[in-house]
Amino acid sequence: LAQHGAEEQQLLTNLKERMTSYSPKLVKVHTVPALSREPTNPRSKTRTKYLKELCKQLIAATNHQVLGSLRSQEGGNEELEGLFSELAHHMALGRERGKAFCGRRDLLDSICQSISQNDNRTHPPLIIHGMPGSGKATLLCQLCERVPAVLGQETVVALRLLGTSQLSSTPHNLLRNICLQVCPALGLPSPGAQVAKGNDGTSVLFFHNLLLSVSRSSTRSLVLILGSVEQLDYLDGAHRLHWLPKSCPPKVHIIVSTLAAANHGPLQTLREAIPEPEAYFEVEPLSSEQVVEMLTMLMVLARRRLTPAQQDLFQHSFPEGGHPLLLELAFNEAKRWASYTLPSELAIATTVSEAMHSLCERLEKLHGPLLVSHTLGYLACSRNGLSEAELKDILSLDDGVLSEIYQHQPPPSKSILRLPPLVWAQLRRDIGECLQERRADSFVLLTLAHRQFAAVVQGRYLSGPESTKRHLLLADFFRGTWSWGMKKPAVLPTLSKPLNADRKVAPQPLWFSDTVTNKRKLNELPFHLLSSGQMEALKQDVLGNMSWFTCRILATGAASLADDFTLCIKHTSCPEMRLVRDTLLLLKPTIDSLQGGASVIYTEVLARLHSFVPSYPDLIGLLCQQCVSWFSACPHPVLIPLCGFLQPPAGPLRTTLTGFLKGVTVLELCADRMVLVGGSQDGSLMVWNMKDIEVMHFLTGHSAEVRCVRMFGKGTRAVSAAMDGTLCLWNLNSGREEFSIKDAHSGEQHLCQLHVDEKNRIVYSTSGSKVNAWHLDTAALAFQISGDVWLCTAVFVPRMVVMTVSEGGGLSLWDSSTGELRFKHQLSGLQEEAPMCSVLLQKQGRMVVGFSRGSLSMVLLEKLPMEVHFVVLSEDETLLAAGFGQHVRVFLAGSKGFHRFLAADLEHQGLVQAAAISSDNTTIVTGCQSEAIWVWSLSEQGLLTDTLGGTETPVTLLALCGSMLVSASPSAPCLQVWDLTYNCTHKTVPPSVACIDRPALSHNGNYIYFPQAGNSHKIIIWDSVGGVESDTLDASAPVRCLEVAEERRLLFAGLASGALLVFPLDSQQQDVVCIPPPESRKPINHMALSRQEEQLAVAYSDLVLVLDLSPGEPCPVLDGPVYTFYTQLPAAVISSVALLAQYRVLYGMTSGELFLYDCPQAKVSPLEAHRSKVTCLETSHRERWALSGSEDSQQCLWDLELCHGKLQYGADNHRTT
Description:
Pfam families: NACHT, WD40, WHD_NWD1. InterPro entries: NACHT_NTPase (IPR007111), NWD1 (IPR043365), NWD1/2-like_WH (IPR057588), P-loop_NTPase (IPR027417), WD40/YVTN_repeat-like_dom_sf (IPR015943), WD40_repeat_CS (IPR019775), WD40_repeat_dom_sf (IPR036322), WD40_rpt (IPR001680). This is NACHT and WD repeat domain containing 1. The structure is a single chain. The protein is an alpha+beta fold.
């Protein structure tokens, strides 16, 4: 300081004071008088001591600040913090890019005018397109500032420059983040947990519904500006733009930008979906006048001036104008010119590629070719970019770069070898705006800013083996090969022998703490191992490592891990990788819906891959072995899979289609075009292309449950009706709503039906007492038919007739063009019955109607024994199937009508709810309440050929096309896609137990007993150790329930006839004891043994018998009944029972009631009721506690001494059994 004047000293003093006053808690002031005596001696002990203390204090202060920040974040809302970080990123980026706006004011005014005109009407999104570097992003940033002046200052504007952050790179993250911003800004409910942890579909549906809510309820406008949709991750199918609404409701505006590519890209997709020319705005090159304007603006921003001669040279280089990117690059070179440089010595690039190459040449001259080529190469090779700290670590591992830097002088230390910090700081400054920041994996990363720059770097520095070398070193870095003090040798020009030094690079563990994962390693390492060809390391560290599996799934989801396998499959033909990838896709819905930890992942993987271990020991065998080891070492109670009982990859279950927020209510499949439409209880519809099994469109227009949907026009259009009384017509090519009609049926609870007359361009909607006919082209009402409450309707196009059937069998025929009544008739014998379902036979001009008491009208066959639930027709109208109770009866069309096709009905162990017949009439598939799908061969007289389990909910909807089957249920927000021609060797073991709620087990679980599927007169004995069927027991009637006395070696079978069979398990012959039924001969609903196996409780619909079990030969003897009691609930029957000591019986009802009955005292104690049928009961070992489960997924823990509930919890969409 003594060498400088008083003015300099004062300036320095003022700077110190400003720094300390700005942040007094963070800035420490050090006064070191002794240091000034020998300031130039680096070996001074005083200096060394001072530096060591300073470093210690710096480290301690930094640690204190970091730990304090982490403590302050504990208990905070991580999602909101991510939102604020994302908003700050895009706002800062928008301000920076908006500075360079020049010209284009006419284009900006046109866009603003279009936004203003569309504010009060439905309109398409606006698409901004142009060539690379044309300034689309700058235009959008300027538009973001102009919109409030156009629509009002209260307008909510959301800007996202796509691809510049991880949360703006996939549709799911993008839309969820936008919803988190918009909902609180407009006072709307925020996305729930289902959207947060769900998939792309749930976030898209919530986003679409949010836009409708904004339009209906808000007085403020919403403007969403999305730049560069082509930058979205292609692995998510984002380029198909199924997530983007093709029309915006009033008060909602969406503006997107994309490249004007000649090939098939987002712009072509948008033109096919949005044909209106007024929705498109092209960003053209700047004119020569605008070039002058932009040059002037850039000079002002840079605080530079060019000489008149230099300015003329610059302008004359672009006589016809150009794109802003090229002008910015040219100006970045021009601003380095000295005023004395002659114009003849200056050169300006006339293309973007030329400018990029010129930049690289200048950087190489300033910093060395190796440093520049390797630095840019690492950035280009990275998956998401690199942070500055990572890049400095990676360059410190690069021996070539270090040799270039230390070619004239040795490194300062022989134990530590690092890249000098100043070298990177200078290079970073000179690269300038060709690098941009991108937020990903909770880091701020650096990436190449322009596509053209990335292409130049790729061609200039990454040709041949150079790319592999970059990936090899990146893989070493993210594996942590040279961390934790591991020394790496280097040969430097200034040293005579190799230097073995510590590079001091950051370690790379999978977990930084119990809750913080290393997302950088998770996202980067697989990509670099694959790109560098290190397949064995890839299998060892990633693909065959269950620790990696668990960390990756918990941190970023199962889909991201599946994407890693997809990348590997593209580069190698390994069937094991495909099987593991398919396993991840199968377990994804479970992981998304459950809040389980690592145990769920290990269970899913082992239970799905167990059967593949003998065939694929290298990868799958290794994974399963790790799962077994993890279970063995797990300190918590876990259920360990002993065999592959979940649906395996390459098995019948191909995939699970998710996306709905609530259960599925309707399915419609067009076999010609392979298009599937599904409707949900949340009012939304989804359209899938079933050839590739990918989402085509999300359709939102209804606000209540979708009741019916019909496709026509060979699968190009669809009409849907919902409980809110709306009727919507959809274009399935574009995904746009053509019109929406407020029908007159709002609130009707009757069956909703739709019929489309394509020839006459009429759609008929029926619900309750009205039939409305609407013109497809104009949405005008053609006519309305009013009268009785019609439960079944059909339209016969050739005869121009509308047929309706009302309660009591009233048949009416109406003119389908005018709505006039032609004929009315009362069907005989149906006065006390109501229509329940119907099917139309267009070829015969007839309608088959199923009634509540089993009648099938207009069919020549006998009366069915109970209510008809459904009737389905084959494609050629030669086969008819009717479902009633637990049976399906199949009929064949003849000259005089239909007659029975199969000698016996198809028997199920549960209420049959759906059926579908194959196009070749050889197979019928049925779904029932027992959560399984049954496949029957019609060519083999109704032989049950397969049972598909694992649906987890009752199957109520089926759609069959060839060998592809789609199943759904209102109880689950997903659809399952099955392949009926799968390889049977991949079938689950043991077979699906679809016909009983709880199988019986004996011999410590080594044997399982359950009724045979399709023939419940037989009991299968399954050897769970050998994985084979051991034996079969015959019963005289269908088996309803089973119970095993483990100590006494007895199997009890309750029959539908009311009889009780007792089988000795150790007897070589079928020595069966039969206990006859009571006089009522009602079926046995449930049985329960006491824990000491001394009593047996047998429950009928309203009767419970308690019998004593005493020793006897050849088997124990049942005495009694000792006690008998009846329930007092006539509207409900017993569904589950448990037997306690001292003849106490705990029983649950189908209505949800729960009771504890003391038989000796004839005293009943009610417990708090469930909301639905009690499905299971279990008691603790000392019988102090009891656990009950019900159909609504609720489980309750009870204190039986106090008859009081202690705990209640549930599991979504899973019935407790």
